[in-house]
Amino acid sequence: MSTPASTPNTERVEPPGVAARARGLTKAYGSGETAVIALDAVDVDIARQRFTAVMGPSGSGKSTLMHTLAGLDSVSAGQVWLGETEITGLKERELTQLRRDRVGFMFQSFNLIPTLDARENITLPMDIAGRRPDAEWLEHVIDTLGLRDRLRHRPAQLSGGQQQRVACARALASRPELIFADEPTGNLDSRAGLEVLGFLREAVDSLGQTVVMVTHDPGAAAHSDLVLFLADGRIVDEMPRPTAEAVLERMKRFDVLHGVASDAPDDPSPQD
């Protein structure tokens, strides 16, 4: 169950430059002695127009953090804001509209509609919402992601990297306040993965977007401005201006200190 504020918010709750924030964010699965605490009173600020990576051992709460910040999963306690809007007290219909209008999503499975061409897949969320895309912005996104000559191709006619570029364009097309990317390179070869990470970096640097990416890959995290490290449902460290080598060394220390098994499930949430 979510925990809405006891009184309506009458003051600005968004610090300057913060796209999303959480205070005391807790998520438990089950109850009593068998309860699993996926997130344990997490406080976090997501900086606007920055690329934030979220890393940690398997079972640390990475995907659960992303799902709760995005309004895809309810919280057990605490509060989450997207911009100035507290989302932990919203009804499902309001959350659906907020996600549609203000959040973009990228997943490693692409989630493209096979009967639609690339352009139709890119504009699909706005078509469903009955909204016309900003034509100038849409063309800018298409050109930035190098999709101009692939717009009439269906997913089966595209490589994995091209399909993920289409998914990236779909996430960007509505000019959302936040883009959440869950292992966006997980189904790609190294070359295609680097390509997609470069496009996410470009979305932040050239298009002014805000990206939050969950990843296991130190090389992918090195494209970000800041890495947040989770362990046992808590943010235990952060690394600005990361390098792949520094992130890898930090993750090795996690393995030693926490005795993490590499084949453990990522998060206990039902979505994973």
Q: What is the H/E string? A: EEEHEEHEHHHEHEHEEH
Q: Cα-atom Rg, whole angstroms?
A: 18 Å
CATH superfamily of the domain at 18-111 and 175-258: P-loop containing nucleotide triphosphate hydrolases
> Helical stretch count?
8
> How many E-type strands?
10
Taking the sheet with the most strands, its summary is: 6 strands, mixed
Beta-strand percent range? 15-25%
Biggest sheet strand order reads: 6-7-8-3-9-10
Which CATH top level class of the domain at 18-111 and 175-258 fits? Alpha Beta
Structural class: alpha/beta
Amino-to-carboxy terminus distance: 19 Å
Mean pLDDT: 84
CATH architecture identity of the domain at 18-111 and 175-258 = 3-Layer(aba) Sandwich
Quote the CATH topology of the domain at 18-111 and 175-258.
Rossmann fold
In a few lines, what is going on in this structure?
The protein has 272 residues and is an alpha/beta fold. 33% of the residues lie in helices and 24% in strands.
Overall description:
- The protein is α/β, with parallel strands linked by helices.
- The chain has a domain at 18-111 and 175-258: 3-Layer(aba) Sandwich (Rossmann fold), CATH 3.40.50.300.
- Helices cover 33% and strands 24% of the residues.
- Strands 6-7-8-3-9-10 form a 6-stranded mixed beta sheet, with helices on both faces. The chain has a 4-stranded antiparallel beta sheet with strand order 2-1-4-5, with helices on one face.
- Strand 9 (226-231) and strand 10 (234-240) form a beta hairpin.
- The longest helix is centred in the last third of the chain and has 16 residues, at 190-205.
